[in-house]
Design a protein that fits this description.
The structure is a single chain. The protein is an all-alpha fold and 137 residues long. It contains five helices and no strands. The chain has a domain of 61 residues. It is 59% helix and 0% strand. InterPro entries: NAD(P)H_OxRDtase_bac/plastid, NADH_UbQ/plastoQ_OxRdtase_su3, NDAH_ubi_oxred_su3_sf.
């Protein structure tokens, strides 16, 4: 049985072909849209689009710090949910991995305890209470 020797770089040929096909398809669709589509520029098309409503005021207005705090808290608790997913996927195999039947469960309870303490702190600081926010625009 004869083995054919070819350069190692040829292993990347399928990847290069796929990238070229994707670029060709994308450029083909944009080019077809450019040549076939109607182009009527108007003041309405050039204007800002705000969910179907006329934009009012300056877009660079100041926001209260509470807005950013809630955004950061949302990201924090969203990441917390992402950390729980791998634990939930391997939960049944945790006793074989750790050697203890309830170790994985107790570790998640500790983790959720830290998250609950953080949520309680934020709640007591009043960051989640939007009704008392006097620093709005």
């Amino acid at each position: 049985m004869a083995m054919h020797s070819y350069p190692y770089i040829w292993n990347y040929l399928p990847l290069v072909l796929q990238v070229l096909a994707a670029l060709g398809l994308a450029l083909g669709m944009v080019g077809a849209s450019f040549f076939i589509g109607k182009h009527k520029n108007s003041r309405t098309k050039a204007g800002a689009y705000e969910c179907g409503m006329e934009p009012v005021g300056d877009a660079r207005g100041r926001f209260t710090v509470r807005f950013y705090m809630v955004a950061m808290l949302f990201i924090l608790f969203d990441v917390e949910a992402v950390f729980m997913l791998p634990w939930a996927v391997i939960f049944r195999r945790l006793p074989a991995i750790t050697g203890s039947r309830m170790f994985g469960f107790y570790e998640m309870l500790v983790y959720l305890g830290f998250v609950a303490v953080g949520l309680f702190y934020v709640w007591k600081k009043g960051i989640l209470d939007w009704a008392n926010d006097k620093g709005d625009l």
